[in-house]
Amino acid sequence: MQVFILICLSLIVLSAAASGLPGCDNQVAIGDRGVVVERATGSVVIVNSTSQEVLCRINGLGDLSHASMVFSRDEQFAYVFGRDGGLSKVDVLNGRLQKRIIQSGNAIGGAITQDGKIIAVSNYEPGGVRLFSAADLKAIASIPANTKQFPDGSKVVGLTDAPGNQLIFSLYNAGEIWQANLDDPAHPVITKYRQIGSLPYDALISPDGRYYMAGLFGEDGIAKLDLWYPEKGVQKILLDYGKGDRKLPVYKMPHLEGWAFANDFVFLPAMGRHQLLVVSKHGWQLAGRIQLLGQPVFAMARPDARQIWVNFAYPDNHWLQVIDTKSLTVVKKLQPGPGVMHMEFTPRGEHVWVSVRDKNQVKIYDTRTFQLLKTLSVEQPSGIFFTARAHQIGL
Amino acid sequence: MQVFILICLSLIVLSAAASGLPGCDNQVAIGDRGVVVERATGSVVIVNSTSQEVLCRINGLGDLSHASMVFSRDEQFAYVFGRDGGLSKVDVLNGRLQKRIIQSGNAIGGAITQDGKIIAVSNYEPGGVRLFSAADLKAIASIPANTKQFPDGSKVVGLTDAPGNQLIFSLYNAGEIWQANLDDPAHPVITKYRQIGSLPYDALISPDGRYYMAGLFGEDGIAKLDLWYPEKGVQKILLDYGKGDRKLPVYKMPHLEGWAFANDFVFLPAMGRHQLLVVSKHGWQLAGRIQLLGQPVFAMARPDARQIWVNFAYPDNHWLQVIDTKSLTVVKKLQPGPGVMHMEFTPRGEHVWVSVRDKNQVKIYDTRTFQLLKTLSVEQPSGIFFTARAHQIGL
Ligand code: DHE
Ligand code: DHE
Q1: B194, CA 20 to 30 Å: which among A203, A253, B110, B234?
Q2: Residue among B29, B165, B390 whose CB faces A93 most closely
Q3: What share of chain B is helix, strand, coil (3-state, %, to 5)?
Q4: Do β-strands A329-334 and A372-377 pair in parallel, antiparallel, or remain unpaired?
Q5: How far is Cα A13 from Cα A7, in angstroms, rounded to an integer?
Q6: What pLDDT was estimated at residue B382?
Q7: What is the DSSP letter of A184?
Q8: Are the CB atoms for A78 and A390 separated by under 8 Å?
Q9: Per-residue pLDDT tens for B25-75?
Q10: Which stretches of chain B are DSSP H helices?
């Protein structure tokens, strides 16, 4: 019997490796795997962050010119939200597309509930949030984002899970933040925060699930909701962070994913300015600005919060800058190549993976020595997502 | 070929399930698995936190009357530190003991380095720290804990990894904290902090890897090292937290694992007192005390830091109390049964698993409703460890 099993195992491994890549072996653990979006080809590759290699490629995910994803609690499945409203369930263990549906005309992101049972997608066309079963992608419920002023619905952005099996999201056109309790997912119970500010364009929840912050496009400022004290409502902070500045044309909206508390500060990319904003957690006042070489897109904290890595909008998107959160200064400038799209830290922070779209490369750096450790071939890479996200609130 | 593979797979699954338990299937993802120590029988069981069941049992791990463990970065392996100095490498995917060595006479805990390559074990007999290859448990180096006053060496406790591929640990007898850089693991470079206080008995690093805090047994107080400012040295805080109190005999030392920052406070179990200490992060002064029904052993924060769950030393070890970190009051008292040993939260905090030694049960509670969800049969359970720990600094 044992010999027979061994033969079986070998045959299975052989068949998995029949492509050019090593293959996605389903008999190893995948806690160190990740998924990289190939934005132009509607494909993703599965990578391994220990061996630092591309394992296999999965095609047929539609328009991934913008895409993000969340993971099932066992890490086996990535739920990919594509620009065309496609929702794809990718099997990270076996390296295959398990199911794909088109759930709307145009989508931007999504979330998985704390209990792992519901996938929520935030839509642009026709707007609103739709809920699906994580098991089979069957539709469970729909939350239209209609308001009096916007009876045809709002684009929804900044959708995230929150503790207590809740979802939180922002209505771009209507300027509202909605909180949905999913104890009975077929009948979400909604709490609405109105007039939170003009055009919230992205949002994120703090790693402990306490603060939900939405960046505003229509005015200077950030809308902040303290979920420990929802009765206080949404507060606008950093109201005049741009005062006196010459506002530049915005080449790309800054993303809020990856913001960090470090040293009692929160670091946020400024909109349309060459700055990283340093905000004091006590009173939520602007405590400083760090000058950058371009307009920041992502400002992401290393897991130990000692560094913030920043990438930039065109025409500076071949650079990376690293900020030291102790001295609040730029300590390093790197040039990975044209079209730096996204960064992802290994869970304990020793390495950072950087996607360099126009070079068809993912570059891996040591975050302490800034040494380039390895370059992987990936077709026009954008977002990089490690499976360890499965275990985090708000990712 | 495909049919053949299918037959193979079925046979493998069948053979795995030949015991009474469902078996540890190696063709599923294990991001939601965990390992529970069976303290009296030298065994561990592999559990699944989604299906909430015991999958398989692994025997032959020696004396586990005290045990802790760390995980490999892919989550496949648990390195179990037993009381008899045994170091066991358990394959969580396949449910088997891969390797076991006896590395000393008496050990208490260990760590895995940030790069995942080195397993470090802190020893009581003969003291010191030993380093092993995570791949094959081959000995790499030994760090004797000898000092002038204690030429025969010190017991080592509170061993943890720190960012930058470092280890930190405390010398119980000598009252020192040592920091080891493992860039060249065969030749660790040691920085020593002397006279940090009397008899450090346990320690932990904050989730961001910044603060190392060691509880003192020989005096009231906590030794705190800020790794962002090592030049400031070790500072003693909470020097007189017991002033005026009647000191009770200590039935069991409080453990520091699981401490939390919440609402700008740190929560620590008091030694020999029926109290949880509330420490302000600003100035590190005692900000309050929360009266408890017994001597706390573990005081563990739910991942969203909204609750602290506390278990107790004999004669109160059949209770659990839950503290609300917003109101700083006890909001719930539960009675899981005699011999409550340890608790572990699911990574996003919706459930807590509690080991009830004298009932041979692990109980699973909903942390929001406090409802008992399920009771599992486990032989004298103590420590519970989910695989998601693989991705965290200091766990
Ligand atoms: C609201 C929003 C989210 C959060 C999703 C959620 O709520 O789950 C998001 C996430 C993302 C995420 C997921 C971040 C994460 O860490 O989870 C990535 C990698 C990403 C890479 C890009 N985004 Fe994104 N992005 C927008 C909006 C958003 N992007 C835009 O409005 C914008 C400016 C215009 C657009 O083209 O739609 C835009 C352009 C980009 C890019 O140009 C980026 C850099 C590269 C690319 O290939 O599209 N966006
Ligand atoms: C120093 C130390 C650690 C940290 C390990 C490391 O550095 O990695 C530790 C960890 C632990 C951990 C791992 C905690 C974690 O979350 O990582 C557990 C579950 C644990 C359950 C117990 N410990 Fe523990 N424990 C001691 C010391 C320690 N225990 C003692 O000195 C004490 C009081 C006496 C003894 O018996 O050795 C003691 C009794 C107990 C128990 O009675 C507990 C509650 C149940 C049991 O079965 O032993 N100790």
Answers
A1: B110
A2: B29
A3: 5, 45, 45
A4: unpaired
A5: 10
A6: 98
A7: S
A8: no
A9: 889 999 999 999 999 999 999 999 999 999 999 999 999 999 999 999 999
A10: 2-16
Query: What are the C-alpha distances in Å from B305 to residues A29, A333, B80, B267?
Result: 30, 36, 28, 10
DSSP code for A359: G
Mutate to test the pocket of ligand 1, among A38, A61, A66 (most ligand atoms within 8 A of CB): A66
CA-atom Rg of chain B in angstroms: 21
Ligand nearest to the CA of B381: 2
Task: Please name which of B78, B163, B73, B87 lies closest in space to residue B120, comparing C-alpha atoms.
Answer: B87
Q: In what order do the strands lie in the sheet with A67-71?
A: A67-71, A77-82, A86-91, A96-102
Distance CA B287, CA B278 (A): 5
Provide the angle, in degrees to the nearest 10, between the axes of the packed helices A2-16 and B2-16: 130
Dig out the tokens for B164 from the structure: 């930058």
β B166-171/B176-181 pair status = antiparallel
Euclidean distance between CA atoms B299 and B309, whole angstroms? 6
- B22 exposed, middle or buried (CB, 10 Å; 0-12, 13-18, 19+)? middle
Strands A33-38 and B381-386: unpaired
B320 forms bridges with which residues in the sheet?
A: B311, B334
Task: For residue A132, give the nearest of A103, A160, A170, A152 by alpha carbon.
Answer: A103
Spatial strand order of the sheet with A129-133 comes to A106-112, A118-125, A129-133, A139-143
Residues A299-343 have pLDDT tens digits of 999 999 999 999 999 999 999 999 999 999 999 999 999 999 999
The predicted pLDDT at position A365 comes to 98
Whole-angstrom Cα distance, residue A327 to residue A324?
6
d(CA A393, CA A377): 31
Structure letter (DSSP) for residue A2: H
Q: How far apart are CA A101 and CA A139, in angstroms?
A: 10
- Inter-chain residue contact B1 with A11, CB threshold 8 Å: yes
Question: What DSSP state is assigned to residue B74?
Answer: T
The count of other CB atoms within 10 Å of the CB of residue B75 is 27
| pTM for this model (two decimals) | 0.94
Residues of chain B with pLDDT under 50: 1, 3-6, 8-18
Structural contact between residues B104 and B121, judged by C-beta atoms closer than 8 angstroms: yes
B89/B98 Cα distance (integer angstroms) = 6
Residue with tokens 């990270």: A92
Cα separation of A33 and A49, whole Å? 6
Strand partners, A161: A167
Is the separation of the CB atoms in B207 and A348 below 8 Å? no
- Answer whether residue A23 shows pLDDT above 80: yes
Q: Nearest 10 degrees: CA dihedral of B144, B149, B154, B156?
A: -90
- Which residues from chain B sit within 8 angstroms of residue A29, using beta carbons? 30, 72, 74-76, 92-93
At A242, which amino acid appears?
G
- Phi then psi for residue B10, to 5 deg, are -60, -45
Q: How far apart are CA B38 and CA B387, in angstroms?
A: 17
Ramachandran angles phi, psi of B377, nearest 5°: -85, 115
- Taking the CA of residue B122 as reference, the ligand 2 atom at the shortest distance is 7
Site residues for ligand 1, CB cut-off 6 Å: A 39, 66, 68, 108-110, 122, 157-159, 202, 252-253, 255, 257, 297, 341-342, 382-383
